[in-house]
Amino acid sequence: MKRIAVFTGGRSDYGHLYWVIDGIHKSKKLELITLFPGNHPYKNELFKMGVSQMLPQINDISDYGGVFEFIRMLMPKEVLGIDMLLVLGDRWETHAAATAALLSGTKICHIHGGETTEGCFDDELRNSITMMSQIHFVSHRAYEFNVARMIEECGVKIGECGWIHCDNIFNVGAPGLDWLTKAKLYTKAELKDKVSIDLEEPYILACFNPVTHELEHTEKYMENMCKALSKNNQQVLLILPNIDPGNKEIKTVIREWTLNPERWQGRFDLFNKLDLFKFVENVDHLTYLSLMKYATLMVGNSSSGIIEAASLNLPIVDIGNRQKGRIMPDNVIHCGYETDEILSAMDKAKNYSGKVVNPYGDGHSSEKIVKVLEEI
After folding, report:
1. How far is Cα 333 from Cα 344, in angstroms, rounded to an integer?
2. How far from 106 is each of 5, 45, 101, 271, 355, CA to CA, in Å?
3. What number of H helices and E strands is found in the chain?
4. Side-chain-facing half-sphere of 101: CA atoms under 13 Å
5. What domains does the chain contain, in order, with CATH numbers?
6. 64 CB contacts (<8 Å, ≥6 apart)?
7. In this predicted model, what pLDDT tens digit does every residue of 123-166 receive, in sequence order?
8. Can you give the pTM of this predicted structure?
9. Which residues lie closer than 8 Å to 212 by C-beta, 6 or more apart?
10. Phi and psi of 245, rounded to 5°?
């Protein structure tokens, strides 16, 4: 049996990796090893699947000692002795795990390579992981082209004779969509105890993550979004950001809007609407998708608005540059950071009533990934 180690850093990648991990665990040809930091919110679940190794806790990117300890623990114990390390995306902690595998001479399989997010340093991290990897699972044909162009292993110059197939790049779609085919989304009654909003009334889901190439504007961007959201007579459920630089500033604004509304009284003349703002720190992927199902609109800059929302026909207002460069489904309305621009995009989104085909796959990515791992 091939020993496959899967690294997950936390909330940001676990929901996307869940069904891949489950598939490897159930495979008769693969042995699963899970690697995760000590503060992983779903570590109890991970301990139940395969052989698990809990790594040092890392709270944010400034914890350089934690990152180095991360790599030190991976190299002598887990990465040596496994056949492949499977990682997803563009997180800095994922890059640390890939670095450990590279230094140990272990093959790396990378999910979601070839994508572009111009507003963040994610591009540099993602492309670096791509260059370290030997097996590539991409979510779209265009990203297959991008990876092929980067690794230059196709044997024929790209563009000379149409599309070129590379035998180590697999277009499998986005595994985060597999929840829609493998699990039943929660009903409103089942969601009732998970969030503090009235699910029988209209609500907007909002998630804004740091734009790491524009960190000096983080607080202003977040305040502009909150001001725009407050001009609508709907509840707003804010999802707290990932542990990137700038997340503390975003959390500060969120808490001021949800817990200390008196700070804003007189500044924006919106005091009477601020009680409509609620926030939640961590939600599992199934809960998150269920909240997206019942929302009237999603506002922010999360990749879930680009990738998953199309399968739920949810209109999206994508703010700023964080997701700039990704392939955008027709349900996505892009806008700038100013309050008026966000409001204008929200007005356009209210008129969205179409049914869009999701360009990121059919919800069967995990089976395709596991099959490749078994056969390669």
Report:
1. 10
2. 10, 26, 5, 56, 43
3. 14, 13
4. 28
5. 2-173+361-375 (3.40.50.2000), 188-350 (3.40.50.2000)
6. none
7. 899 999 999 999 999 999 999 989 998 887 654 455 554 555 67
8. 0.87
9. 119, 120, 121, 122, 244, 245, 246
10. -55, 135
